[in-house]
Amino acid sequence: MKMYEDYIAGFSEPANSLVEEMERYAALNHVPIMDRSGMDTFLGLLRIQQPKQILEIGSAIGYSAIRMIQALDKASVVTIERDADRFTTAVEFIRRGGLNDRITIIEGDALELASEILPPIHFDALFIDAAKGQYKRFFEKYSNHVAPGGIIYCDNMFMHGAVLMADEEIPRRNRTMIRNLRAFTAWVMEHPDYDSSLLPVGDGILIAVKRHK
Protein backbone atom coordinates (compact mmCIF):
# COMPACT_ATOMS: atom_id res chain seq x y z
CA MET A 1 0.00 0.00 0.00
CA LYS A 2 2.84 2.40 0.86
CA MET A 3 4.40 2.03 -2.60
CA TYR A 4 1.11 3.10 -4.22
CA GLU A 5 0.85 6.12 -1.92
CA ASP A 6 4.40 7.16 -2.85
CA TYR A 7 3.62 6.68 -6.54
CA ILE A 8 0.45 8.79 -6.32
CA ALA A 9 2.24 11.45 -4.28
CA GLY A 10 4.59 11.95 -7.21
CA PHE A 11 1.68 13.44 -9.15
CA SER A 12 0.56 15.85 -6.41
CA GLU A 13 0.41 19.51 -7.26
CA PRO A 14 3.34 21.45 -5.76
CA ALA A 15 2.32 23.31 -2.62
CA ASN A 16 2.64 27.08 -2.50
CA SER A 17 4.91 28.77 0.02
CA LEU A 18 2.13 29.47 2.55
CA VAL A 19 0.95 25.86 2.52
CA GLU A 20 4.51 24.60 2.90
CA GLU A 21 5.05 26.96 5.83
CA MET A 22 1.86 25.71 7.47
CA GLU A 23 2.94 22.10 7.02
CA ARG A 24 6.30 22.88 8.64
CA TYR A 25 4.56 24.73 11.49
CA ALA A 26 2.20 21.80 12.07
CA ALA A 27 5.08 19.33 12.18
CA LEU A 28 7.17 21.44 14.57
CA ASN A 29 4.25 22.20 16.89
CA HIS A 30 2.57 18.79 16.76
CA VAL A 31 -0.64 20.14 15.21
CA PRO A 32 -2.58 17.36 13.47
CA ILE A 33 -3.41 18.20 9.85
CA MET A 34 -4.50 15.97 6.97
CA ASP A 35 -1.63 14.14 5.31
CA ARG A 36 -0.91 14.79 1.64
CA SER A 37 -2.66 11.66 0.28
CA GLY A 38 -5.79 12.26 2.32
CA MET A 39 -5.86 15.95 1.46
CA ASP A 40 -5.36 15.32 -2.26
CA THR A 41 -8.25 12.85 -2.28
CA PHE A 42 -10.45 15.16 -0.23
CA LEU A 43 -9.79 18.10 -2.54
CA GLY A 44 -10.48 15.87 -5.54
CA LEU A 45 -13.88 14.97 -4.10
CA LEU A 46 -14.64 18.63 -3.45
CA ARG A 47 -13.69 19.54 -7.03
CA ILE A 48 -16.22 16.96 -8.23
CA GLN A 49 -18.91 18.20 -5.86
CA GLN A 50 -18.16 21.94 -6.35
CA PRO A 51 -19.75 23.13 -3.07
CA LYS A 52 -20.29 26.87 -2.71
CA GLN A 53 -20.80 26.99 1.07
CA ILE A 54 -18.68 24.79 3.36
CA LEU A 55 -18.87 24.39 7.14
CA GLU A 56 -15.82 22.99 8.94
CA ILE A 57 -15.69 21.70 12.51
CA GLY A 58 -12.11 21.92 13.72
CA SER A 59 -10.02 24.66 12.10
CA ALA A 60 -6.75 23.91 13.90
CA ILE A 61 -4.33 26.36 12.21
CA GLY A 62 -6.56 26.91 9.17
CA TYR A 63 -4.71 24.46 6.93
CA SER A 64 -7.67 22.56 5.51
CA ALA A 65 -9.83 25.69 5.18
CA ILE A 66 -7.11 27.40 3.15
CA ARG A 67 -6.54 24.31 1.00
CA MET A 68 -10.27 24.06 0.28
CA ILE A 69 -10.49 27.71 -0.75
CA GLN A 70 -7.41 27.42 -2.96
CA ALA A 71 -8.97 24.42 -4.72
CA LEU A 72 -12.45 25.90 -5.21
CA ASP A 73 -12.69 29.28 -6.92
CA LYS A 74 -16.29 30.01 -5.93
CA ALA A 75 -16.44 28.52 -2.43
CA SER A 76 -16.52 30.12 0.99
CA VAL A 77 -15.81 28.43 4.32
CA VAL A 78 -17.13 28.92 7.83
CA THR A 79 -14.86 27.14 10.29
CA ILE A 80 -14.96 26.65 14.07
CA GLU A 81 -12.00 26.22 16.44
CA ARG A 82 -12.08 25.98 20.25
CA ASP A 83 -8.34 26.15 21.02
CA ALA A 84 -7.40 29.82 21.55
CA ASP A 85 -3.78 29.48 20.40
CA ARG A 86 -4.67 27.56 17.26
CA PHE A 87 -7.48 30.00 16.54
CA THR A 88 -5.04 32.93 16.73
CA THR A 89 -2.56 31.14 14.47
CA ALA A 90 -5.29 30.30 11.96
CA VAL A 91 -6.48 33.91 11.88
CA GLU A 92 -2.94 35.02 11.02
CA PHE A 93 -2.44 32.42 8.28
CA ILE A 94 -5.83 33.29 6.76
CA ARG A 95 -4.93 36.99 6.84
CA ARG A 96 -1.56 36.35 5.21
CA GLY A 97 -3.24 34.31 2.52
CA GLY A 98 -5.55 37.24 1.74
CA LEU A 99 -8.58 35.04 2.38
CA ASN A 100 -10.52 36.99 5.02
CA ASP A 101 -13.31 37.60 2.53
CA ARG A 102 -13.79 33.87 1.89
CA ILE A 103 -13.00 32.22 5.23
CA THR A 104 -14.97 33.08 8.38
CA ILE A 105 -13.40 31.60 11.51
CA ILE A 106 -15.36 31.35 14.76
CA GLU A 107 -13.70 30.79 18.13
CA GLY A 108 -15.61 28.44 20.42
CA ASP A 109 -16.53 24.88 21.28
CA ALA A 110 -18.61 23.56 18.37
CA LEU A 111 -20.70 21.45 20.75
CA GLU A 112 -21.63 24.49 22.83
CA LEU A 113 -22.12 27.18 20.18
CA ALA A 114 -25.64 28.43 19.59
CA SER A 115 -26.88 27.56 16.11
CA GLU A 116 -27.79 31.21 15.58
CA ILE A 117 -24.10 32.11 15.36
CA LEU A 118 -23.91 30.43 11.94
CA PRO A 119 -25.09 32.15 8.76
CA PRO A 120 -28.80 31.41 8.11
CA ILE A 121 -28.06 29.15 5.13
CA HIS A 122 -27.85 25.48 4.27
CA PHE A 123 -24.28 24.38 3.58
CA ASP A 124 -23.37 22.22 0.60
CA ALA A 125 -20.62 20.44 2.53
CA LEU A 126 -19.74 19.81 6.16
CA PHE A 127 -16.20 18.74 7.08
CA ILE A 128 -15.76 17.23 10.55
CA ASP A 129 -12.16 17.04 11.76
CA ALA A 130 -12.26 17.72 15.51
CA ALA A 131 -12.43 15.54 18.64
CA LYS A 132 -12.76 12.01 17.24
CA GLY A 133 -14.73 10.65 20.19
CA GLN A 134 -17.40 13.31 19.60
CA TYR A 135 -18.03 12.73 15.88
CA LYS A 136 -21.58 11.47 16.43
CA ARG A 137 -22.46 14.57 18.46
CA PHE A 138 -20.95 16.87 15.83
CA PHE A 139 -22.81 15.01 13.10
CA GLU A 140 -26.14 15.16 14.92
CA LYS A 141 -25.81 18.84 15.78
CA TYR A 142 -24.61 20.16 12.41
CA SER A 143 -26.14 17.81 9.85
CA ASN A 144 -29.32 19.89 10.02
CA HIS A 145 -27.30 22.75 8.52
CA VAL A 146 -26.48 20.66 5.44
CA ALA A 147 -28.72 20.95 2.38
CA PRO A 148 -30.39 17.84 0.90
CA GLY A 149 -27.91 16.39 -1.56
CA GLY A 150 -25.06 17.91 0.44
CA ILE A 151 -22.13 15.87 1.65
CA ILE A 152 -20.64 15.36 5.11
CA TYR A 153 -16.95 14.44 5.16
CA CYS A 154 -15.18 13.04 8.25
CA ASP A 155 -11.42 12.57 8.54
CA ASN A 156 -9.29 10.23 10.70
CA MET A 157 -11.80 7.39 10.64
CA PHE A 158 -9.00 4.84 11.11
CA MET A 159 -7.10 6.72 13.83
CA HIS A 160 -3.79 5.38 12.51
CA GLY A 161 -5.04 1.80 12.68
CA ALA A 162 -6.37 1.94 16.25
CA VAL A 163 -9.93 1.08 15.14
CA LEU A 164 -8.60 -2.35 14.08
CA MET A 165 -6.91 -3.07 17.42
CA ALA A 166 -8.34 -5.05 20.30
CA ASP A 167 -9.23 -2.87 23.27
CA GLU A 168 -6.36 -4.19 25.35
CA GLU A 169 -3.88 -3.10 22.65
CA ILE A 170 -5.12 0.51 22.77
CA PRO A 171 -3.70 2.85 25.43
CA ARG A 172 -6.28 3.13 28.19
CA ARG A 173 -6.64 6.91 27.73
CA ASN A 174 -7.76 6.38 24.12
CA ARG A 175 -10.11 3.44 24.50
CA THR A 176 -13.34 5.39 24.95
CA MET A 177 -12.50 7.62 21.97
CA ILE A 178 -11.87 4.60 19.72
CA ARG A 179 -15.03 2.84 20.89
CA ASN A 180 -17.01 5.99 20.14
CA LEU A 181 -15.42 6.30 16.71
CA ARG A 182 -16.22 2.68 15.84
CA ALA A 183 -19.80 3.13 17.05
CA PHE A 184 -20.18 6.33 15.04
CA THR A 185 -18.89 4.62 11.89
CA ALA A 186 -21.40 1.77 12.23
CA TRP A 187 -24.21 4.23 13.01
CA VAL A 188 -23.65 6.53 10.05
CA MET A 189 -23.00 3.70 7.57
CA GLU A 190 -26.46 2.32 8.41
CA HIS A 191 -28.23 5.70 8.70
CA PRO A 192 -31.36 5.70 6.50
CA ASP A 193 -31.00 9.40 5.62
CA TYR A 194 -27.48 9.10 4.17
CA ASP A 195 -25.66 7.18 1.49
CA SER A 196 -22.28 6.61 3.11
CA SER A 197 -18.89 5.31 2.02
CA LEU A 198 -15.62 4.76 3.86
CA LEU A 199 -12.51 5.41 1.79
CA PRO A 200 -9.15 3.79 2.70
CA VAL A 201 -7.06 6.86 1.86
CA GLY A 202 -4.97 8.95 4.22
CA ASP A 203 -6.20 8.10 7.71
CA GLY A 204 -9.63 7.09 6.43
CA ILE A 205 -12.27 9.47 5.04
CA LEU A 206 -15.99 8.91 5.54
CA ILE A 207 -18.41 10.42 3.02
CA ALA A 208 -22.13 10.71 3.82
CA VAL A 209 -24.43 12.09 1.11
CA LYS A 210 -27.65 13.52 2.55
CA ARG A 211 -30.64 12.03 0.80
CA HIS A 212 -33.52 14.09 -0.56
CA LYS A 213 -36.61 13.26 1.44
Automatic annotation (TrEMBL):
Q: Is Acetylation one of the keywords?
A: no
- Determine if Lipid metabolism is one of this entry's keywords: no
Looking at its record, which EC class is this enzyme? transferase
Per UniProt, which keywords does this protein have?
A: Magnesium, Metal-binding, Methyltransferase, S-adenosyl-L-methionine, Transferase, tRNA processing
Positions bound to Mg(2+): 129, 155-156
| Catalytic reaction annotation | 5-hydroxyuridine(34) in tRNA + S-adenosyl-L-methionine = 5-methoxyuridine(34) in tRNA + S-adenosyl-L-homocysteine + H(+)
Q: What is its EC number?
A: 2.1.1.-
Superkingdom of the source? Bacteria
Gene3D superfamilies on file: Vaccinia Virus protein VP39
Q: Which residues bind S-adenosyl-L-methionine?
A: 34, 64, 81, 109-110, 129
PANTHER family documented for this protein: CAFFEOYL-COA O-METHYLTRANSFERASE 3-RELATED, O-METHYLTRANSFERASE-RELATED
On subunit structure and binding partners, the annotation says: Homodimer.
- Protein family: Belongs to the class I-like SAM-binding methyltransferase superfamily. Cation-dependent O-methyltransferase family.
Please explain the role this protein plays, according to its UniProt record: Catalyzes the methylation of 5-hydroxyuridine (ho5U) to form 5-methoxyuridine (mo5U) at position 34 in tRNAs.
Q: What is this protein called?
A: tRNA 5-hydroxyuridine methyltransferase
Q: Which organism is it from?
A: Sporosarcina quadrami
